[in-house]
Amino acid sequence: MTTQAHLAAPRRNKGVNWEKWGWIYMRISGVVLVVLIFGHLFVNLMLGEGIHALDFAFVAGKYATPFWQWWDVLMLWLALIHGANGMRTVVNDYVGHTGVRKALLVVLGLAAALLILLGTLVVFTFDPCNGVFQDGAMWATCHPGK
Ligand code: HEM
């Protein structure tokens, strides 16, 4: 007696396999985030005077340096895309109603895009002298000779 298996040929979808690239992105961004997050915590909380040195001037000093601007922006982009993509997986796994699922995914995408845009603008346009008036403590530093 012969048994014949009538299995359908595996489907090969044309085009980019976004789920595969999402899966790979989660692993690679996870590894890079470990370095960025622990580097960030070490420099801010442990180096020199550590947490006691954290104030407005400390942050202003960091944002005057392209190295730290790019460090923070990379951390922001990788973590937000990683977090949003992870939440997309959770929503797809647990939300059964198609309409609700789609609405949540749109809100998730918009929230991530907005936060990425705002965060990037803050890092690259940060100016410690913005909003410093003549009666403020920073006036002399920001406007020497005036
Ligand atoms: C410290 C570095 C991090 C590492 C090594 C890491 C690693 C990972 C990996 C490998 C996955 C995929 C798990 C799976 O597919 O089963 C994942 C999922 C996820 N990650 Fe991260 N991650 C990190 C930081 C973050 C951060 C900062 C956020 C939030 C902004 C975040 C939010 C999520 C979410 C929401 C998921 C989906 C959870 C799920 O599928 O159950 N992760 N993470």
Q: How does CATH name the architecture of the domain at 29-128?
A: Up-down Bundle
Structural class by helix and strand composition: mainly alpha
Give the biggest sheet. Answer: none
Radius of gyration (Å): 24 Å
The number of distinct helices, counting runs of at least 4 residues, comes to: 5
State mean pLDDT (0 to 100 scale): 92
Shape: elongated
Poorly predicted regions are: none
Main location: membrane
Transmembrane segments: 21-47, 67-91, 103-126
Keywords: Heme, Iron, Membrane, Metal-binding, Transmembrane, Transmembrane helix
Protein name: Succinate dehydrogenase hydrophobic membrane anchor subunit
Summarize the structure.
This protein has about 150 residues and is an all-alpha fold.
Task: Report on this structure.
- It is a single chain.
- With 146 residues, this protein is mainly alpha-helical.
- It has a domain at 29-128: Fumarate reductase/succinate dehydrogenase, transmembrane subunit (3 helical TM bundles of succinate and fumarate reductases, Up-down Bundle).
- The chain has 5 helices and no strands.
- The longest helix has 29 residues, at 66-94.
Task: List the main descriptive attributes of the protein structure presented here.
66% helix; mainly alpha; 3 helical TM bundles of succinate and fumarate reductases; 146 residues; binds protoporphyrin IX containing FE
